[in-house]
Amino acid sequence: MHPLPPPPPYTPPALKKTNPSHYQIVLSKQTRNQQSGTPETPVNSSQLSKVRPREKPILPEPRRTNPIVWCGAILCLLFSLLLIFFGITTLIVFIAIKPKVPVFDTPQASLSVIYFDSPEFMNGDITFLANFSNPNKKLSVRFEYLYIELYFFESLIATQVLQPFSQRPGEERVIQVHLLSSLVYLPPKLALLLQKQEQRNRVVYNIKGTFRVRVKVGLIHYSYSMHGKCQMEMTSPPNGVLITHSCRTKR
User: Fold this and answer.
1) Coil, strand or helix: which one is 117?
2) With contact defined as beta carbons under 8 Å apart, do 152 and 190 qualify?
3) Residues 6 or more apart in contact with residue 102 via CB below 8 angstroms
4) Are the C-beta atoms of residues 251 and 102 closer than 8 Å to each other?
C-alpha cells in the first residue's frame, strides 16, 4: 500500500483571500464612509505643526564694533563738550563785562563846492571828521571794514572806504574824510531842492557808515556789523560850516 499524502495546511476563514466574483462590487473607502455615515475628518496643517517639535531659532553671533567707529564717537563727544564749555564761558564773560557798541559821530564838517554842469548833474566837495569811540573799559575792538556813504535825501552822491584800525578800551579816534562828487545824477526834483537849499544857506546831507567790528575777550574773538547814520546841516559853500548834526549807532 502506498502512504497517504499529508493534508493541506489549515487556513482560518477570516484570513482567506477571496477574490471578488464577477457579481460583486468593490466599494472604495470613501463610498464605505458615506454609507456608514461617518465622514472622514481632514487633517489641518496647523494640527500637524502642533505635533511637530518647535525648532529653536538660530541667533547670529554679535559682531565686534569697529575701532574706527569708537574713535569717531569719542571725538564727537569731546567736540561737543568743548562747544558747551566755550558757550558757557562766553556767556559768563558777557554777563560780567557787558560789552558796548562803539560810537560813530561827525563833530565837524565843511562844505566847499556845489555846482551843476547841467540841470541834473551835480559836483560837490565836502570834508568832515569821523569820530570813533570805544566805550568799553575792558575790551579792545578792531574796525576791520569801514564804508562811508554820502546822501542827499535818498540819492547817493559820494562814497569812500577807510583803512582798518584798532582801539584800546576807552580810546577815541578821529579820521578826516574827504568826499568828492563828480557829475552825479540827481532827479530833477532833488536837483531843484538842492539849489533852493543852497540859496537859503542851509544844506542838509546824510552820512551813512557800515562797519565790521571785531572784539577780543581773552582767547575768544567774535565779530558783528555796526551801522552809523548822521544828518548834517551846513551853510552854503564855498565856506560852508556845520551848524547842527545828529548821529546814532546801532548793530
Assistant:
1) strand
2) yes
3) 132, 133, 134, 135, 141, 143, 167, 211, 213, 226, 249
4) no
pTM above 0.85, yes or no: no
- Residue carrying the nine cell digits 569820530: 131
Residue 128, judged by CB atoms within 10 A of its CB (0-12, 13-18, 19+), counts as buried
Give per-residue pLDDT as tens, 109-167.
Answer: 999 999 998 888 999 999 999 999 999 888 889 999 999 999 999 999 999 999 999 99
Residue of 205, 251, 244 whose CA lies nearest to 228: 251
* Cα separations in angstroms, 221 against 140, 151, 226: 11, 34, 16
Q: What are phi and psi of 187, to 5 degrees?
A: -55, 150
Inform me whether the pLDDT recorded for 34 exceeds 70.
Answer: no
Here the cell at position 12 is: 482560518
Cα 121 to Cα 195: distance, rounded to the nearest angstrom: 12
- The grid coordinates of residue 225 equal 556789523
Residue type, 119: P
Count the neighbouring beta carbons within 10 Å of the beta carbon of residue 90.
Answer: 13
Q: How far apart are CA 219 and CA 85, in angstroms?
A: 13
3-state secondary structure of 84: helix
User: CA-CA distance, 233 to 237, in Å (whole number)?
Assistant: 12
Closest to 166 in 3D by CA, of 124, 134, 127: 134
